[in-house]
Design goal:
Strand 7 (about 250-255) and strand 8 (about 260-265) form a beta hairpin. The protein has 6 helices and 9 strands. By secondary structure, it is α+β, with helices and mostly antiparallel strands. The longest helix has about 70 residues, at about 120-185. The protein has 2 domains: about 1-150, Up-down Bundle (Methane Monooxygenase Hydroxylase, Chain G, domain 1), CATH 1.20.58; about 185-280, no CATH class. The chain has a 4-stranded mixed β-sheet with strand order 4-1-9-6.
């Protein structure tokens, strides 16, 4: 267009010397008309090319955002990965909508334009194909993300269920352990008492010369011990006699430095095998 204008101007210039003023005016008007046409087409073309470049830039930014979504999706342990994915998906959808609107605008401009260029039509068709391909990929990506979210939610529920089961089992095991400890402690518990004859009779521990003959003796009068650890019992008396039955050889009844008796249990399991109650008469 610009070359044609230059050529026309040259022709007018060369012919100007041989033309009348009226003819020169007509040629100048024709030149100005051609210049306006060229300027209009340049403006129209610039507008189309600007929109064209904006669509290409939108496609490029969508590809970058799609890559960020893929990277974030492959890094689920990142605390901000879900936020990154959401932000980029929102950006992709918004940019794709803008691209579709600009493609429609390009097609309308080219349709109404005086510029008839098949190559530009093919380029717009290529842009449309790229946008369609991106749309298909984004739909697949959204479906994959939705499936992954569903899987993560299911895993979360499963983990929560397992955590509840573990907590329940932990509590059950704690209760069982406490119960076993109590049972073990009970199995290894024994009771002893020492007192004068009148004291033992008063508590119904000694009755008619028999020890622990009846079940109604005062059990609270006894002291509870753990036979695994309590192997020495002091009676604080210079006179002591075992009234309850305990196997010989499983204990020693000896005096300390003050002449007071104390019991040394040398074989606890054997000593307590007959009775878990030790009754000692003192004076």
């Amino acid at each position: 267009m610009k070359k044609l204008l230059v050529f026309v101007a040259c022709v007018i210039g060369l012919s100007a010397c041989n033309m009348t003023g009226e003819k020169q005016d007509a040629l100048m008007q024709e030149r100005d008309s051609l210049q306006r046409i060229i300027n209009e087409k340049d403006i129209e073309l610039d507008d189309i090319l600007t929109t064209f470049n904006e669509v290409q830039e939108g496609i490029r930014r969508i590809n970058e955002a799609e890559g960020r979504v893929t990277i974030a999706d492959g890094n689920p342990e990142s605390a901000s990965s879900k936020e990154v994915i959401r932000e980029n998906m929102d950006f992709i959808k918004q940019t794709m909508q803008q691209n579709r609107e600009m493609i429609a605008m390009l097609q309308e401009k080219l349709k109404n334009s005086s510029i008839k260029n098949s190559q530009m039509q093919n380029t717009i068709a290529s842009l449309q194909a790229q946008i369609d391909a991106q749309t298909a990929r984004i739909q697949e990506l959204e479906a994959a993300l939705a499936e992954k979210d569903a899987l993560i939610e299911a895993q979360g529920e499963a983990i929560a269920g397992l955590s509840n089961n573990v907590a329940s089992l932990t509590e059950e095991n704690r209760i069982k352990a406490e119960k076993m400890q109590e049972q073990d402690k009970e199995l290894n518990s024994a009771w002893f008492v020492f007192g004068t004859k009148s004291e033992l009779k008063e508590q119904k521990i000694l009755s008619s010369g028999d020890v622990l003959k009846n079940e109604d003796f005062n059990k609270n009068y006894f002291t509870k011990i753990d036979i695994r650890y309590d192997k020495e019992i002091r009676f604080y008396s210079k006179s002591a006699k075992l009234l309850s039955t305990h196997p010989a050889g499983s204990y020693k009844l000896e005096k300390d430095k003050q002449g007071q008796y104390e019991l040394h249990i040398t074989s606890p399991q054997k000593f307590w095998s007959v009775s878990k109650y030790l009754v000692v008469l003192v004076k």
